[in-house]
């Protein structure tokens, strides 16, 4: 099966000289198309660093990190930007633009894709906002939406370009348990419909069941990679 993510012997360091500190140690991980993988572990264990490397938000320093067939180790800044644009991102703090409506925030997710016609952009944005249950909130600004609704806009924005890979960092952290559950159910449903792969960092034990596989990190190392059903 096609490997969407393939990481071999990956180390990562922050800082220089005497401040240089290793935060990832010999990471090996493969994720197949359509898998939902949760990355969990204690604070400071390196989860966000790994997610950011996979997303091209940081440059990998050594060994091999292939995402959607492209090697990111040694890639130019321009190649990393291109790699970033192919993925969908969902963050804890949703990162919506406060001065744009729900609809405008979602269309922005498509405007980076110059080959998609304006009319198609509008159609897809309306359709996905309907799918996330916000068809009646299209012209609301983030301030006028609840935490869960904002996060649903963020999901719509991440998925509207139908990316093959979605990276999510603590997408439920700011939500109450019901909203958190709704948000991950929605991610799971849309990902299955679109056939996309999800790599999600979370501390939230209430949502581990949506994963096909749970990967545990500790002190910069992967300590297991169990099927979700066993955990
Ligand atoms: N920009 C940076 N510069 C220097 N050190 C960093 C930087 N970002 C992270 N670190 C260090 O790297 C280690 C891993 O951090 P990371 O944020 O990846 O952990 P995490 O598992 O995602 O933690 P949390 O669950 O608290 O978000 C920590 O020791 C952290 O202090």
UniProtKB/TrEMBL annotation:
Domain ABC transporter, residue spans: 7-230
UniProtKB keywords: ATP-binding, Nucleotide-binding, Transport
Record's protein name: DevA family ABC transporter ATP-binding protein
Superkingdom: Bacteria
GO MF: ATP binding
């Amino acid at each position: 099966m096609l490997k969407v993510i393939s990481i071999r012997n990956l180390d990562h360091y922050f800082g220089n000289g005497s401040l240089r500190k290793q935060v990832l140690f010999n990471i090996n991980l493969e994720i197949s198309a359509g898998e939902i993988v949760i990355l969990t572990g204690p604070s400071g264990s390196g989860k966000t660093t790994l997610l950011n490397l996979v997303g091209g938000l940081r440059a990998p320093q050594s060994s091999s990190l292939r995402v959607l067939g492209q090697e990111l180790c040694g890639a130019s800044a321009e190649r990393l930007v291109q790699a970033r644009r192919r993925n969908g991102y969902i963050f804890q703090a949703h990162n919506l633009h406060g001065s744009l409506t729900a609809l405008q925030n979602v269309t922005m997710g498509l405007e980076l894709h110059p080959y998609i016609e304006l009319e198609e952009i509008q159609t897809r944005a309306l359709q996905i906002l309907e799918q996330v249950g916000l068809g009646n909130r299209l012209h609301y600004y983030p301030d006028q939406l609840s935490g869960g609704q904002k996060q649903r806009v963020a999901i719509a924005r991440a998925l509207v370009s139908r990316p093959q890979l979605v990276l999510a960092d603590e997408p439920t952290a700011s939500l109450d348990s019901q909203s958190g559950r709704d948000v991950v159910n929605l991610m799971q449903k849309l990902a299955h419909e679109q056939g996309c792969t999800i790599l999600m960092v979370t501390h939230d034990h209430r949502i581990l069941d949506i994963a096909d596989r749970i990967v545990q990190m500790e002190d910069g190392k992967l300590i297991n990679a169990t099927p979700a059903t066993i955990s």
